[in-house]
Amino acid sequence: MIKAVLSGDMPRSVVLASILGLILFCLALAPFLFPGVRTVDTAARICVFVVLVASYDLLLGYGGIVSFAHTMFFGIGAYGVALASTHLGRGFDALAGGALAGAGVAAALAFVIGLFSLRVRAIFFAMITLAVASAVAVLVSQLSGLTGGEDGLTFQTPRELGPAFKFGDELFGVKLNGKLLSYYLVFTGSLILFLLMLRVVNSPFGRVLQAIRENDFRAEAIGYRVVRYRVAATCLSAAVAALAGSLYAIWLRYVGPDTTLSMEIMIDILLMVVIGGMGTMYGAVIGATVLVLAQNYLQNLMGAAGSAIEGLPVLPQLLDADRWLLWLGVLFILSVYFFPTGIVGRLRRS
Amino acid sequence: MSDPILRLEGVCTNIAQYHILQGVELEVPRGAVTMLLGRNGVGKTTTLRTIIGHWRAHKGRVLLDGQDITHMPTPAIARTGVGFVPEDMGIFANLTVEENMVLAAVSGPIDSARLDWVFQAFPPLKTFWKSEAGNLSGGQKQMLSIARAMVEERRLYLIDEPTKGLAPAIVSTMARALRELKAQGASILLVEQNFSVARALGDTACVMDDGRIVWSGAMSELATDAGLQERLMGLSMDAH
Amino acid sequence: MSMAPEHAPRMARLSLAQRLAPWMPVLLVPILIVLGAVAIPNTSSWLTLTVSGLAMGMMIFLMASGLTLVFGLMDVINFGHGAFVSVGAFVGVSVLLMLGGMTGAPSLALNLAAMLLAVIGAMLATGAMGWAFEKVIVQPVYGHHLKQILVTMGGLIVVEQLIIVLWGPEEIYISRPEALKGAITFAGAALEKYRLVAVGFGLVVFAVMRWTLRRTKIGLIVRAGVENGEMVQALGYRLRLVFVGVFIAGSALAGLGGVMWGLYQEVVTAHMGNQAMILIFIVVIIGGLGSVEGCFIGALLVGLMQNYVAFLEPKVALISNIGLMVAILMWRPMGMIPVVKAK
C-alpha cells in the first residue's frame, strides 16, 4: 500500500524513513502540535517549498538541466490566483481558474524557452532562463497597474478559508476556523503534488530522463528524442511550480515580487535541492524543511552570536544575521563538491 | 643497430571501460620509417595518442631516447621533439596557413631554408599562405598538417594515415614528401593503410591486432609474403 | 598536376544576399541605428541616445569579453563572472573616493590620472581574484557543466556577501571626475562627456584585444585553442597556463567594465554584477559563445536597443533585449558568429 503510494520509490534507509515520517507527522498535525500564527505559517511555507523544490529536482536532479526561471513559474501561479481573485471576485472558482491558468501559462512559457535553448545546448537554458526571469521580474514590478508593482497585490480568498469563518468551537485547544481549513488545503495540495512528482520520476518517462542526463548522446542514439523529453520535463516542472505558487498565494492572500519572483527565492531553491540531495525527490522534503526552519530560527541565533563578539573587527559583520546568505553560499559550494547527493544520499549510503 | 629512438614496454590504455591497448611492445629504430599496420580498430591510433599523451597508459612505459615520458604532460612530450600528425589532421580552420605554421614552430621563428624546403614539397601551401586553412581542399589540409610537423626538425614524427581519402595524385605528393623527410634521416612512426605507400616508405613494420603487436620485422619480408599478410591482417595487401 | 582540359567550372554569380551573409552581423549595428532614427524623429534625441547606447555597449563588451573567451577556450561557463564586475566597481570607486583631491580639481589631466589609478586598482584586484576564483572554484569542476553552473553561482553569492561585509550594505554614490561632468553640444544634441570617453575607451580596448588575438603568438594560441585545444597541446603549448592567463585577463576586464559602469550610473551596489550578468548573457548568446567579435557586435546591439526602447517605452526596455535575443536565435541558433569546434 505504502509502496504504491510512493510509486515504489522507497526511502531505502531506516533513518531517512523515520525523518520523513516525522516531517509528515509534524506537517499533518502542525496546527495542533504547534499552535501559533508563526509556527503554522512556517509549516505552510515548508509544504509549499517541498513541492517547489521537488519540481525543480525533476529538472535539475533527474533531467540534468539548470534553470534560473523556477521562481518565475512559481510567481506566475501566484499572480494567476491573485489576479483571478481580484478580477473575478472571491470564490473557489476564481482560485481554481487562476491556478489552472497560471499552470498553463507557465507550461507554455517553459515550452517556448525550452524550444529555443535546449535545441542548441543545455547550458543555453541556464543563461536564457536567468535573463528571461530577471526581465520578467523587472517587468512585473514596473507594470504596477496590473500587478501592484513592488507593493504586490493583497486579495481576498473565499470566506471559508479566512479566520472569520468558524465551523466549530475548539479541538484540543485549537480554534476551528477558516485558517485551519486553508492550512489543510495547502497541506493536501502539496502532498498530492509531491506524490505526483514521485510518480513521474519513477515512470518510464523519468527513467528516460535520467538516461539522458547520464549520456544524452547515447540516449539520442538509442532513439529517444532528447529535446522532446527535456522540453516535456521543463513544462511539467514549470506547471507544478506554478501550482505551488498558487497554493502559496492562497495561504498568504498576498503576492508580491519579494515573496514569489525574487532571485533570493531562486537561490533558496538551489540550496534546498543541493543540500537535500539532487535527483532523489525526498531530498526536496529534507532540504526545504531544514532550510525553512534554519531561516526562521537560526538567523536569530547568528544575530545573537554576532552581538556576542561585538567589538572585534570584521567578525561581527561576518556573523551578522543579514550575512546568513554568505554562509549558505559557502555551504552550497562545499555541498556541490563533497556531497553532490546531499543529505539523502548520505543517509542512504550509511 | 643502435638503440631505438622510441620504445613501448607493455603499454596498456583504457578508454572509459574499454581496454584498447593490452600490452603493446614496440620499438622504433633511429633514422628509419616504422610502419604500424593492422585492420581498423586494433589500436593503431590509440598507440600514437598514448605516445603523445592525449590518452594515458595505465600500465607499462613509454621511453623516448631512454627517457620515460609515460606521465609527462602532452606539451612537454611535444617539446622534447615529437611532431604529431593526428588522424583528423587537427588543423586550425579559422587560422591562416601562415598562422598554422607559425604555431607549429614552437622553438622560435620559422627557419627560412626549412620553409623553402616545405614549400618545394607542398607548393599549394605557398600559394595559399595567407588564406584561412578552413578554405583549403582536403588534400591541401593534409599537406598543411604534415608541413606543420616538418617545419622544425623533430626527434620523432608520429603520422596517422596521411593518405586517407586522398586522390592518387596527392597521395604521390605525400609519399614524395615523406621520402624526403626520411632521406634527411628522420625517425618516423607511420600508420598507413595504403600498401604501395607503406611498401615504398617502410623499413620495418609492426602489425597490430586486438591491442597488441602480433608481428614485427622488415617491411620487405612482410611485403613479399602474401600468406603472412593474409594471416596477420585478414586480407592480402597486394589486393589494395 | 595538370588541369583536365574540358572541365571548366564557372562560379555561379552569388546573389547579393549570399555575398552579404558573412557581413550581416556587422551590418546589424548600422541597421539598428537607422531603425532608431526612424522610430525617434527628433534627431538630437536620437543622437544622444545613439551615443549613450554605444557607450553602454562598449562597457557591456568589456564585461562580457572575458566570459566568452573563457568559454571558448576551456568550455567553462562562469556564472560568477558578475562578481568581478561588482568588485571592480567597488575597488575603483574606493580609489576614486580616496583621490578626492584629484577628481575634484577641474583639470582633465589630473582627473584622467585619477581614473587611470582607479582602473589599475580595480583590474589588479579583480585579476588577483580571478586567479583565486579559477584555482578554488572552477578548477575542481572542469568538464562538468552542471556543477560549474552551480558552483560558480555559489561563488557569486559569497563574493556579493563579502562585498557587503567589507563595504557595508548601503549603495555608494560617486560623482564623476570634474572635467568629465556635463555634456558637450553637437548638432543640437547634448552628448555627455563621460559617455564619449567610454566609447573611446571601449574602442581602444577592443582594438588592443583584436590586435593581441590576431598579431601575437599568445593570441594565436588562444584562437587555436578555442578551436582545437588538444592539437595546441600536441604542438607543445601549455594550454592550461594560457587558460589561467585568459581567465585572469577576462576577470580584470570585467573589473574594468565594473568601474566604467559604476561611474556611468554614478552609484555602485553589491548586486550590480548580478544585474549586469543578465545583459552579459544576452550578449554572449547572441554573439556566439566563444567569439570576441560576436560579443562586441552583440554588446553594441544590446546597448543601442536598451537606450532606444527606454526612450520610447521605458517599461519594456529589458524585455526588448530578450526579444532581440529571440530574434537572433531564430535567425542563427548558435549566435551571430558561431564558433566552429573541431569536435
TrEMBL record, chain A:
Topology term for the membrane: Multi-pass membrane protein
Subcellular location: Cell membrane
Pfam families the UniProt entry points to: BPD_transp_2 (PF02653)
Record's keyword terms, sorted: Cell membrane, Membrane, Transmembrane, Transmembrane helix
Transmembrane feature ranges: 14-34, 46-74, 94-116, 123-143, 181-201, 231-251, 271-294, 301-319, 325-345
Keyword rRNA processing annotated: no
Name of the molecule in the record: Amino acid/amide ABC transporter membrane protein 2, HAAT family
Species assigned in the record: Ruegeria marina
Listed InterPro entries: ABC_transp_permease, LivM-like
GO cellular component: plasma membrane
A GO molecular function held by the record: branched-chain amino acid transmembrane transporter activity
Automatic annotation (TrEMBL), chain B:
Keywords: Amino-acid transport, ATP-binding, Nucleotide-binding, Transport
InterPro entries tied to this protein: AAA+_ATPase, ABC_transporter-like_ATP-bd, ABC_transporter-like_CS, BCAA_Transport_ATP-bd_LivF, P-loop_NTPase
All copies of domain ABC transporter, residue ranges: 6-235
Single GO molecular function: branched-chain amino acid transmembrane transporter activity
Protein's GO biological process: L-amino acid transport
Family stated for the protein in its record: Belongs to the ABC transporter superfamily.
Protein name (Swiss-Prot/TrEMBL): Amino acid/amide ABC transporter ATP-binding protein 2, HAAT family
Organism in which the protein naturally occurs: Ruegeria marina
From TrEMBL, chain C:
MF terms in GO: transmembrane transporter activity
Biological processes annotated in GO: amino acid transport
One Pfam assignment: BPD_transp_2
Keywords of this entry: Amino-acid transport, Cell membrane, Membrane, Transmembrane, Transmembrane helix, Transport
Highest taxon, organism lineage: Bacteria
Keyword Transport in record: yes
Main localization category: membrane
Entry's localization field: Cell membrane
GO cellular component labels: plasma membrane
Transmembrane regions listed in the UniProt entry: 20-40, 46-71, 83-102, 108-133, 145-167, 194-213, 241-264, 276-304, 316-334
Membrane topology according to the record: Multi-pass membrane protein
UniProt family annotation: Belongs to the binding-protein-dependent transport system permease family. LivHM subfamily.
Official protein name in the record: Amino acid/amide ABC transporter membrane protein 1, HAAT family
